[in-house]
Amino acid sequence: MKEVERIFIEKAVERAGIFLYSREIALEFVKACGNENIHLFGIDGFFLKDNRIQPSMTDSIDFSSLFFEGDIYQKAINFLEVRSDNMFFEITCA
After folding, report:
1. Which superkingdom heads the taxonomic lineage of this protein's source (predicted)?
2. Could you tell me if 13 and 90 are in contact, meaning their C-beta atoms sit under 8 angstroms apart?
3. What is the bridge-based pairing of β-strands 52-62 and 87-93?
4. Which domains does the chain have, with CATH numbers?
5. What span, in angstroms and rounded, lies between the C-alpha atoms of 92 and 5?
6. pLDDT tens, position by position, 8-48
7. Could you give the CA distance from residue 68 to residue 50 in angstroms, rounded to a whole number?
8. What's the mean pLDDT in 59-72?
9. Alpha helices in the chain (DSSP H)
C-alpha cells in the first residue's frame, strides 16, 4: 500500500471491505496520486443506502485500457467534478 493510500484510508467510509470516499475527498486523493505519479486504474461510484452500497456503472470510469490516452488525472478530476455530492467513490490505483 502506497503512503498516499494510507493517508486517505483514514478519511474513507468502509462498507463490505471497500473503502469509499466522498466526492471532495476523492478529488484530493486523485490530485495526491497525480503529485506522486501513482497510476489510476479506475473510479467506481456508489450510493450509500443505510448500511448497504449500491454501485452505479454510469458513475464509474476505467483507465486500465491500453488504448486510454491523455492525462488520466485531469480526466479523473473532470469525471468527479460533475458527479453528485451524495455519491461515494472507490479509487483503484497502482
Report:
1. Bacteria
2. no
3. unpaired
4. 3-93 (3.30.190.30)
5. 10
6. 999 999 998 999 999 999 999 999 999 999 999 999 999 99
7. 36
8. 83
9. 3-9, 23-35, 72-81
Return the biggest CA–CA distance within the chain: 38
CB atoms within 10 A of CB 46: 22
Q: At what angle do helices 72-81 and 23-35 cross, to 10 degrees?
A: 170
- Report the candidate in 22, 10, 40 with the shortest Cα–Cα distance to residue 80: 22
Q: How confident is the model at residue 72 (pLDDT cuts 50, 70, 90)?
A: very high
**Strands 40-49, 18-22: pairing kind:** unpaired
State how far the Cα of 26 lies from the Cα of 12, in Å rounded to an integer: 9
C-alpha to C-alpha distances, 28 to 32, 67, 82, nearest whole angstrom: 6, 26, 15
Contact assessment for residue 21 and residue 89, using Cβ atoms and an 8 Å cutoff: yes
